[in-house]
């Protein structure tokens, strides 16, 4: 058995799963930039995947990193430039479906003994603080924490940019494409989620897994965010809760050209370089 990586004193070790396999062939952004996959699309002068891996490598809590990506030279070159510890990264080939890739990754030996995090490679604005906020929300009674952003804050910060909106009676939320979990409860969530995997861009269909009553309350604007997650927890037989991250940028992943332009503008406005000093 591999020895665990030692995090900084006082920091709870966490394994990290990075999804860098394309969900659809011939991604328009990848084609535009002439790269092998969307994870290799540049945000500034650095590929999305490189930015994500650099943040993970510098997060004090990072234990092992499981990378789901094609084992081809362009991806290997990025991994070689990121300063991981010896034996810290495990590389697996993606399966044809996202569900298959997740199931395979969560079966990697010597990982997922305690806390885990899932993030996609197109989350080029990823911040260490987001990882910390989401994992700190994962108490001993919780199996899965879903990072979310307040829709009002997102729309105020990025007017005119379209984000998937979940309209609850108490607030509207946007997905943050970042998750913290514990085993084995997350496996029950994954099995149920697989049934609605193809409906991620249609909130009302995803919410249909809550059942007829809660769905009708949602459609009528009477379902609160707390009630939605309580009902969801009962259905998947695992405790699921939302964590509202206090940065609207968590709602911005790079799905297309508009998102890429927005991500670049966010970096510029925050005074963050489009360069990565270590590896770009």
Taking the sheet with the most strands, its summary is: 8 strands, mixed
Instruction: Say what the CATH topology of the largest domain is.
Output: Spore Coat Polysaccharide Biosynthesis Protein SpsA, Chain A
The geometry reads as globular
The percent range for strand residues is 15-25%
Q: What is the total domain count? A: 2
Count of β-strands: 10
**Helix coverage percent:** 25-40%
Secondary structure category: alpha/beta
- Within CATH, the superfamily of the largest domain carries the name Spore Coat Polysaccharide Biosynthesis Protein SpsA, Chain A
The DSSP helix count reads 11
* Rg value: 18 Å
Can you write the helix and strand succession as a string?
EHEEHEHEHEHEHEEHHHHEH
Low-confidence stretches: none
CATH architecture of the largest domain: Alpha-Beta Complex
Instruction: Calculate the terminal CA-CA distance, rounded to whole Å.
Output: 34 Å
Mean pLDDT: 88
CATH class of the largest domain: Alpha Beta
Structure keywords:
280 residues; alpha/beta; Spore Coat Polysaccharide Biosynthesis Protein SpsA, Chain A; eight-stranded mixed beta sheet; two-stranded antiparallel ribbon; 11 helices; globular
Protein architecture, described:
By secondary structure, the protein is of the alpha/beta class. Helices cover 35% and strands 19% of the residues. It has helices at 28-33, 48-58, 73-81, 98-105, 128-136, 151-157, 185-193, 203-207, 212-219, 225-236, 257-269; strands at residues 14-19, 42-43, 46-47, 62-68, 89-92, 115-120, 144-150, 166-167, 172-182, 240-244. Strands 1, 4, 5, 6, 7, 8, 9 and 10 form an eight-stranded mixed sheet that branches. β8 and β9 form a beta hairpin.
């Amino acid at each position: 058995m591999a020895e665990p990586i030692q995090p900084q004193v006082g920091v709870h070790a966490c394994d990290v799963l990075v999804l860098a396999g394309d969900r659809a062939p011939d991604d328009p952004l990848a084609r535009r930039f002439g790269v092998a996959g969307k994870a290799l699309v540049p945000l500034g002068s650095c590929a999305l995947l490189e930015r994500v891996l650099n943040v993970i490598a510098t997060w004090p809590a990072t234990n092992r990193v499981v990378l789901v990506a094609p084992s081809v030279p362009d991806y290997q070159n990025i991994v070689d430039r990121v300063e991981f510890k010896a034996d810290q990264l495990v590389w697996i080939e993606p399966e044809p479906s996202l569900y298959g890739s997740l199931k395979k990754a969560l079966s990697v030996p010597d990982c997922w003994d305690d806390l885990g995090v899932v993030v996609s490679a197109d989350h080029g604005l990823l911040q260490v603080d987001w990882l910390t906020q989401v994992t700190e929300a994962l108490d001993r009674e919780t199996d899965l924490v879903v990072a979310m952003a307040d829709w009002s804050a997102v729309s105020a910060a990025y007017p005119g940019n379209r984000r998937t909106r979940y309209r609850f009676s108490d607030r509207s939320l946007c997905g943050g494409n970042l998750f913290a979990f514990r085993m084995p409860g997350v496996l029950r969530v994954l099995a149920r989620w697989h049934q609605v995997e193809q409906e991620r861009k249609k909130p009302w269909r995803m919410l249909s897994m809550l059942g007829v009553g809660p769905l009708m309350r949602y459609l009528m604007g009477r379902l609160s965010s707390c009630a939605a997650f309580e009902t969801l927890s009962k259905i998947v037989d695992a405790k699921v809760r939302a964590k509202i991250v206090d940065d609207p940028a968590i709602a911005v992943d790079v799905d297309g050209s508009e998102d890429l332009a927005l991500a670049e503008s966010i970096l510029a406005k925050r005074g963050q370089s489009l360069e990565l000093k270590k590896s770009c």
